[in-house]
Design goal:
The chain is an alpha/beta fold. It has a single domain, classed as TIM Barrel, CATH 3.20.20. It is 40% helix and 17% strand. It has 14 helices and 15 strands. It is globular, with a radius of gyration of 20 Å. The termini are close together. The model has no long low-confidence stretch (mean pLDDT 96).
Length: 400
């Protein structure tokens, strides 16, 4: 039996995207270079992606028409600073037009300042772990200030820093000839990269506040929802700490903390366990586990006590849109449960607005809106109308 919960006044209701995954042609990015390196992990390059660099107006029109009130998108450092200290006025003006375009359509923009990708020159000098990376990040944000100085209420400094640090560890392992299975058993985050990202986040908050004091800042963390089997609680805590908790602790005192959750990670006496054989899997191979979202916000609230939460990503890779509705219904019910229990959640952004490039391949379709790979035609799925309608009614499904 279910009943409904009305969303609080001002609750953010949107969908998320990332620049590299939808824009296309991001040739100055380290990921573009990685896509063309010949590594087996990459099944296909991003190419034109969704051509959203040119079609962003159409994307925003659809989201606004569907009923969403907010749109989270990222700006691309590699476009804004293609060479060290050399800033593109045209790229800055482009992203500024996106902010203004969102406002014109009644969408509140949440701007992500870094979503996985770096300029090639930044990667070549050693990436985040190299000395002075926080200063270079602050320099980029200072140059990009015209984008977010007005009409932007929320800025996400760094998307999933814990996954950025995992990728740094994976790249180091691959460079030394070690085998890495990112899907089944990714390495623990690189410690030097973790430390650097925490410094960069603090520096970014300071920089944004100095340039635009009204902007509410935070970062988003991939909450792995480590579920311990009986007797494995200490193992789960030790597993979770470097992968999640240190990043949640860094958000204490921030304006908000972004929570990103898709599934759970089972932990046994020896560590991470595979997905149960009888479990339904998504196109990414993850377990279909909607209630991960409620678990994630509860855990985030316990570690970063007092910091308001915003769900910045939650969704499912599936080619069966009815399963997307089913998954998201369960996720929102678990979110409503947590909110009823006093967890301070200020918004929800679904991943993703579009079927897009999922870091090495196009097969995992997370989008509320389908994109034709040949013509780039956009077609909203039934899940998009269903989820957008919640933005109009402001009523959230909730389990009694």
């Amino acid at each position: 039996m279910t009943h409904a919960r009305r969303l609080p006044e001002g609750f953010l209701w949107g969908a998320s995207t990332a620049a590299h995954q939808i824009e296309g042609g991001n040739t100055n990015s380290d990921w573009w270079e990685f896509e063309h390196s010949g590594i087996p992990y990459v099944k296909e390059p991003s190419g034109d992606a969704c051509d959203s660099y040119h079609r962003w107006r159409e994307d925003m029109d659809l989201l606004a028409e569907l009923g969403f009130t907010d749109y989270r998108f990222s700006i691309e450092w590699a476009r804004i600073e293609p060479a060290p200290g050399e800033f593109s006025r045209a790229a800055i003006a482009h992203y500024r037009r996106m902010v203004e375009g969102a406002r014109e359509r009644g969408l509140r923009p949440m701007v992500t300042l870094h979503h996985f990708t770096n300029p090639r020159w930044f990667a070549e000098r050693g990436g985040w772990a190299a000395a002075g990376s926080d200063e270079l990040f602050a320099r980029y944000l200072t140059a990009a200030a015209p984008i977010f100085a007005t009409d932007v209420a929320h800025a996400c400094t760094i998307n999933e820093p814990n996954i950025v640090a995992v990728m740094a560890a994976a790249q180091a392992a691959l460079a030394s000839g070690q085998a890495v299975n990112l899907a089944a058993d990714p390495p623990a985050p690189d410690e030097a990269t973790t430390d650097a990202l925490v410094r960069a986040h603090a520096r970014a908050v300071e920089t944004v506040k100095s340039l635009a004091p009204h902007v509410s800042t935070g970062w988003s963390v991939a909450n792995l929802v480590c579920e311990a089997l009986p007797g494995s609680e200490e193992v789960a805590a030790a597993f979770r700490r470097p992968r999640v908790d240190v990043f949640l602790e860094a958000a204490r005192g921030d304006d908000w903390l972004g929570v990103q959750a898709y599934t759970r990670t089972l932990i046994g006496p020896s560590g991470r366990l595979p997905v149960p054989e009888d479990a339904e899997r998504t196109l990414t191979g993850w377990e279909f586990y909607p209630r991960a979202l409620g678990d994630a916000v509860r855990h985030s609230a316990s570690v970063a006590a007092g910091t308001p939460l915003i769900v910045t990503e939650n969704g499912i890779a599936t080619d069966d849109d009815s399963r997307r509705v089913q998954y998201t219904t369960g996720a929102l019910e678990s979110l409503a449960d947590a909110m009823r229990d006093g967890v301070d959640v200020r918004g929800y952004f679904h991943w993703s607005a579009l079927d897009n490039y999922e870091w090495g391949r196009y097969e995992p379709t997370f989008g509320l809106i389908a994109v034709d790979r040949e013509t780039f035609a956009r077609t909203p799925k039934p899940s998009a109308a269903w989820l957008g309608a919640i933005g109009r009614t402001r009523v959230l499904p909730g389990e009694a």
